[in-house]
Amino acid sequence: MHQFDKDIWIDASAEGTFHFKPEVERNFSFNMPSKITDTSKERSWIVALKDSGYLIEDMKTPAKVHFDPSICNDETKMFAVYANFGTRRLSSKKPVIKLMVDSKNSLLKWTFHMYGLSGEEGNPHSFTLARIVDGEILNEEEYPLVNLKNLTDIFNVKIICRNNKFKVKFNDDTEGSFNLDPNLLASISDIQMIGSFDIISAGYTGDQVSYVRKKFANTT
After folding, report:
1. Residue 94: what are its φ and ψ, rounded to 5°?
2. Cα–Cα distance, 147 to 169 (Å, whole number)
3. φ, ψ for residue 127, nearest 5 deg
4. For residue range 84-106, what is the model confidence (pLDDT) as tens digits?
């Protein structure tokens, strides 16, 4: 830490809010750690990722980030979303993550279904994986989320690309896979997120793995 003044302390707490609060009130005019300029190298490259479209924080859907094809050849990288489900219309405005080629084509579509594909209350929640070709959903497969009970908790979705397959993990608990044509990989432009969920962070672990994992160490 670069200490600008001997009267600046970083002794604070962040109980689930990620907003630091001073532990002790002090008799100095400057007593708000949140107002100290962050000049750390770690944060500077996070800002650069946000500016270049490869990381977003604290956004409502619809939102998107640029697709980074290196996740398919770099074993340290994956795409990760940390979010909260919306409190309204979760059944009608299903959370969706799509790897977009254009408005009618997607190589991977992840969809959350409250009470599963049937939508009948009491059934396990689930997610499906599919692709979209000329506006038509193809090869849809369903994966029940039998351990998901509380829809108010922070959740995460991780997309891994290995050996011509997309692997998708929900809360590091349930995993699905979907075949990928490697010849079409270069056609993916963006990762689009729509539906009833609020994004806390969406980006690529690997380059920014230390940031994402530190920020959400208590939620995964």
Report:
1. -60, 135
2. 13
3. -130, 155
4. 998 778 889 999 999 999 999 99
